[in-house]
């Protein structure tokens, strides 16, 4: 357990940030899952809109520091590649 005043504050901040990060990660996973479900269903029009939503959530998570900027870009690229491959 934290003993110093500053370490107690850091512990409180860690709890708040953990909750925020968990919520943001959950939103990202939900957006990516809905895109993948649309792809499996074979509905490319819905998949395109879901890709936009997933891209927005991934970049938002990167801007908040929940995930690295390049990780978000890599995941967006892979999702877009899936969509373009299915469109051919």
| Broad structural category | mainly alpha
Quickly count the domains: 1
What would the principal axes of the Cα set say about the shape? elongated
Low-pLDDT parts are none
Q: Which CATH class is shown? A: Mainly Alpha
Describe this structure in words.
The chain has helices spanning about 5-40, 45-65, 70-85. By secondary structure, the protein is an all-alpha fold. The protein has a single domain, classed as Methane Monooxygenase Hydroxylase, Chain G, domain 1 (Up-down Bundle). Helix 1 packs antiparallel against helix 2 (about 45-65) and helix 2 runs antiparallel to helix 3. The protein is elongated, with a radius of gyration of 17 Å. The mean pLDDT is about 95.
Helices and strands in order:
Layout: H1 5-41, H2 44-63, H3 69-87
Summary keywords:
mainly alpha; Methane Monooxygenase Hydroxylase, Chain G, domain 1
Could you give a short description of this structure?
Helices cover 86% and strands 0% of the residues. With 88 residues, it is an all-alpha fold.
């Amino acid at each position: 357990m934290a003993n110093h005043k500053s370490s107690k504050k850091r512990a409180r901040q860690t709890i708040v940030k953990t909750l925020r990060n968990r919520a943001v990660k959950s939103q990202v996973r939900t957006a990516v899952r809905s895109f993948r479900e649309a792809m499996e269903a074979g509905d490319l029009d819905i998949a395109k809109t879901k890709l936009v939503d997933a891209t927005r959530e991934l970049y938002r998570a990167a801007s908040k520091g929940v995930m690295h900027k390049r990780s978000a870009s890599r995941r967006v690229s892979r999702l877009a590649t899936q969509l373009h491959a299915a469109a051919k």
